[in-house]
Backbone:
């Protein structure tokens, strides 16, 4: 990989140069990372060990939790290690690997959220066709399509970046390797590549977000004729998904839909979709979902009862 570049490693400037702030951030992100693993593993185990796995919404939620774990793990461990290190270095090869994996798992997450919106649209707007359309084969096809879409998106970002020459300086003003900070360091004209990045990441995020908003518009339009109890149940289910979508998409759109420039605020916004959203997803889906709470109680109370015997 290094034949196209004089740079063999990059220096990540991270979130702050103040050691006290870095120590505070380390403790905070350590707690967040523990919460991410605990919450998402609880969801995955509770779904797989109960009958919820047979329901399309929870089948997709199971894979969303898995993608959350994979996605945040491409960034958070390195971030925490750098917060304790004097020199925050990452090799050229590892930087390219991090770039590929973050966009791969991030792409999968975006497409799974879209698949979940499609599931809710069918369940509420086309209830008579729902059980026929959303069978296990269709669910597996959705997950396969999400992984394929994530790979195509990530491979595109990777190919746009891998051939860029880097002659120095090698300091990335970010806490992980992403496209825009790398374009800023390249010693070649990156204007066209910047436009291609917008066409890739920016348009994918924007189009997906518009599709999600439209799906919920149709859902709200449909449930206006439902009974109060049915409306409440539909809104309760969908509101969880909407909260996750806003947490993930709002900062992503801020960063990727604009021209290829970087701002100091980018690092703060990136925290939302790399750490904060994966941490809050389990809380949002469990605290606002009766079926999920019942599954958690049933599975874990059963395990406690078995240990007590």
Residues:
């Amino acid at each position: 990989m290094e034949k196209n570049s004089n740079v063999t490693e990059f220096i990540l400037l991270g979130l702050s140069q103040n050691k006290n702030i870095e120590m505070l951030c380390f403790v905070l992100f350590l707690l967040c990372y523990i919460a991410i693993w605990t919450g998402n593993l609880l969801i995955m185990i509770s779904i797989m060990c109960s009958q919820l796995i047979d329901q399309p919404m929870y089948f997709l939620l199971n894979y969303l939790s898995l993608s959350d774990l994979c996605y945040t793990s491409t960034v958070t461990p390195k971030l925490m290690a750098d917060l304790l290190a004097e020199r925050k270095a990452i090799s050229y090869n590892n930087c390219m690997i991090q770039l590929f994996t973050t966009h791969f798992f991030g792409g999968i997450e975006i497409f799974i959220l879209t698949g979940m919106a499609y599931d809710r649209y069918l369940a509420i707007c086309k209830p008579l066709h729902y059980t026929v359309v959303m069978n296990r084969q269709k669910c597996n096809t959705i997950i396969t399509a999400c992984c394929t879409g994530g790979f195509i998106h990530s491979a595109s970002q990777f190919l746009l970046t891998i051939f860029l020459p880097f002659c120095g300086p090698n300091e990335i003003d970010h806490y992980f390797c992403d496209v825009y900070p790398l374009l800023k360091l390249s010693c070649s004209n990156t204007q066209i590549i910047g436009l291609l990045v917008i066409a890739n990441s920016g348009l994918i995020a924007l189009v997906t977000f518009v599709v999600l908003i439209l799906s919920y518009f149709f859902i709200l339009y449909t449930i206006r004729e439902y009974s109060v109890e049915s409306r409440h149940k539909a809104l309760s289910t969908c509101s969880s998904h909407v909260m996750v979508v806003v947490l993930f998409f709002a900062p992503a759109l801020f960063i990727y839909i604009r021209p290829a420039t970087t701002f100091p605020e980018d690092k703060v916004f990136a925290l939302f979709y790399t750490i904060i959203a994966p941490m809050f997803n389990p809380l949002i889906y469990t605290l606002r979902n009766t079926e999920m709470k019942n599954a958690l109680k049933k599975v874990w109370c059963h395990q406690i009862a078995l240990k007590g015997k």
About this structure: The beta strands are 9-12, 89-91, 171-172.
